Amino acid sequence: MQSKRQRMAVEKRVRFKSWWLPWALIAPQMAIILVFFFWPAAQALYYSVQQQDAFGTNVVFVGLQNFRALWADESYLASFKTTAVFSVLVAALGLTSSLLLAVMADRAIKASALYKTLLIWPYAVAPAVAGVLWLFMFAPSIGVVSYALRAAGLDWNHLLNGTHAMILIVLAAVWKQISYNFLFFLAGLQSIPKSLIEAAAIDGAGPWRRFWTVQFPLLTPTTFFLLVINIIYVFIDTFAIIDAATSGGPGKETAILVYKVFFDGFKALDLGGSAAQSVVLMVILVGLTVVQFRYVEKRVHY
Amino acid sequence: MAAITLRNVEKTYAPGTKAAVKVIHGVNAEIASGEFVVIVGPSGCGKSTLLRMVAGLEEITGGEIDIGGRVVNQLEPSERDIAMVFQNYALYPHMSVYDNMAYGLKIKKVAKAEIDTRVAKAAKILELSPLLDRKPRQLSGGQRQRVAMGRAIVRQPAVFLFDEPLSNLDAKLRAQTRLEIQKLHGELGITSLFVTHDQVEAMTLGQRLMVMNGGRIEQIGTPEDVYGKPATIFVAGFIGSPPMNLLKGEADGSRFTVGGQTLELPQSAPRGGTLILGARPEHVEIDPAGAWPLKVDVLEMLGAERLVYGHIGGAAFTLRIDGMLAPPKAGETIRLRVAPERVHWFDAQSGVRV
Amino acid sequence: MIENRPAATVLSHLTLILGVLIVMFPVYIAFIASTQTADQIVQNVPMSLLPGDNIVQSYKLSLLGGVTETGSRLPAAGPMLFVSLVTALTIAIGKIAISLLSAFAVVYFRFPFRGLVFWMIFVTLMLPVEVRIFPTYKVVSDLGMLNTYAGLTIPLIASATATFLFRQFFLTVPDELVEAARIDGAGPMRFFKDVLLPLSSTSIAALFVIQFIYGWNQYLWPLLMTTDENMYPVVMGIKRMISGGDAATEWNAVMATAMLAMIPPALVVILMQKWFVKGLVDSEK
After folding, report:
1. pLDDT values of chain C reduced to their tens digit, one per residue, 285 residues
2. pTM for the whole thing?
3. Which among A99, A95, A97, A75 has a CA at the least distance from the CA of A87?
4. Which DSSP helix (H) or strand (E) runs through A172?
5. Closest CB to A28 among C101, C187, C255
6. How many angstroms separate the CA of residue B42 from the nearest CA in chain A?
7. Residue C152 near residue C144, CB atoms below 8 Å
């Protein structure tokens, strides 16, 4: 009698009968998401194809003009580039360092619980606070790290040097994400059957080779998943880090896309342009999430 | 204690749509109050579906089900005065054994003192008293099954429903629990419907058996009826192990032709034409003067008995002999004899007993 | 551990210890800074790496605010911490509550448009508030919810992470439990309360940690919709404290505030670590 019972994957066989109860149960959530999600999202779409006139009184339908304007706008494209560079750096540095720590923790079985506790709490630190902390350490005149760098011959000043600014936010962002990546990598490593690793050892593979031929390939789903998560993190959650550490500067050199949305919309009050930027971000994020769910759902069995 | 009546009970999945599938076809049965009836059949024959319809966990799309004189089609499971024991026990993992058994009574707002008494009594019968504070994950499979039964007993229902409760237990535990269930029925005498795919369980537990196949009842009868007078070739082949030998051939008076081989019958066939002859392996004997020639293929020694596999005229045939007897050799042809009253006849088209 | 390679084990521990040190370093610096005076930080470059003796003053200044030596007004962190706490708890509890109900409805009932409802909830996973920030601001403003706790929290409850995760979990609860409950006479809400909720306790704990931290760490949204200083959460307020430039900033108070801002979420994570890790990793799969 196996087949019927295995089918409980996506649909429950058993149901309660009530015509009104389910509606009452979903009402709170539906109310909130209609008012605070769908309505604003629809508005963003609406305004992205509108242009306010100079006085802010009339809105005119302008089709895709706002989007074309974006593509022609140098600062927008620069922001795109900045975001891309930022995400690649954060993802690469963040994933490799977390993976290294996870591999080490996986081996040091005895104290791994302690290391876990010590390494996961940065997850709790607010991005804004992380930005402030790293800003403090790297503050050109008084920071401890910037002092050490100057002593080593590097004239650190992220207020003037765009590259320094980028390095600063990358470090702060990576620092914050280490815990999350570490947890997943560790879980991924621990779910690899020990028998596979033992078989490799019997075949004569040393730890380095075992890692590259057995563990790393089996970690691919986790790695891919974390890659997508990290990119989404970079696009969205790093706003606070940047605002706290560099305010998008110097100039606009660390203004990633979401920062620009905020700046242009709030400070420069360009409704149509900012809505268009929001829509672009939405499309990118939806794309990333779809990719993630498609890929993850494919390999999940209930 | 209540009688159960099934009147033309039918079940169709996705009724009224293009994907409609009828899985239960017009089942009729009367189960007397206090009777222990086993519904037995192969996987997918619809026996669990039928049981769940009696329980109220599946919609009844045709016909009526009566429990204790009431039509229960529209009633919720908790209103039908039934209790069910599941194959996977279905114990609430976060509640203690006591709470698991008391849950249904709590919902019915039974007084705490009364709950205590009933749980204590059931626990005593099932030897669960020292385990009342444990959680299900701290119990063995057999203990969990007993808790599931305790939960059913405590409700003091009119009907017990068992959905393959022994399938998840190992062989030894299964035999033990079978005896416990028999004992329980002897003590409590509650009307019981027991579903299983195992014909041994069916034969040993049931006062009557309902043999099902493809959503239909093939036969309802006592174990003796079902074994000695199977109503169809399905029942004939399903009950009894090793299964009854079934030979298809042409009958003509006292002669039966199977694949070129003509057999002398101990009595005339009920009619002429194409028929299926049935004879159980345990009812056939080796007799040098016997009328049936068997070419021996393989032998299996089981200890108290030996199984002889062979062919009669191209058709496979098995017989059972005493383990201590000197066995025939593979490749040999031996002669068999069967008593006239041990021969069964079935219509070749319908499979029904003639 | 397969072969016994002491060198490799030592290396592992060294790497991990190094990792922990790097991870702890910024916080250590912050703590040290919070124990010194603003002058000491700015004048002694580099700042001493040992604790100073100004700890009480720093924290007092941070919590209560006041006027600094340079004459600028320092907002009090005390009220901001309170705002953060209320916000985080409201978001965590609110989100978990409505998500449990929605997931329960979607999994255990059949009703018209169920598919559509599920899709609508699913879609909200994809767009965090930052992406639809201005229209959301406008809606909140139109509803008169600026500078209110409701405005700070309700729009952030809109995403369906929790609903989705609870749904995944409910799908793994065996069908027979529902059937046994039905036979026992438990109606849907009774089943929800007596059986489903206790079984979900790990998921609820994990989600509580995640949502509490999410709520506590909110920056952009409060930045946009609060203009009243009394409604600033602490992670937002802290940024405003450093806008004066390196020398003018009251660094010791800033760092003290940073320490205070880090403590509640860290406590939540560490205390509920077991459930949190399990729930986080299991639920994303």
Report:
1. 456 677 777 888 888 888 888 888 888 888 888 887 777 777 776 677 777 777 777 788 788 877 766 666 777 888 888 999 999 999 999 999 999 999 999 999 888 888 888 888 888 877 888 778 888 888 888 888 888 888 888 888 887 888 888 888 888 888 889 999 999 988 899 999 999 999 888 888 888 988 999 899 888 888 888 888 888 888 888 887 777 666 567 788 888 888 888 889 988 888 887 776 666 666 554
2. 0.80
3. A95
4. helix A162-190
5. C101
6. 9
7. no
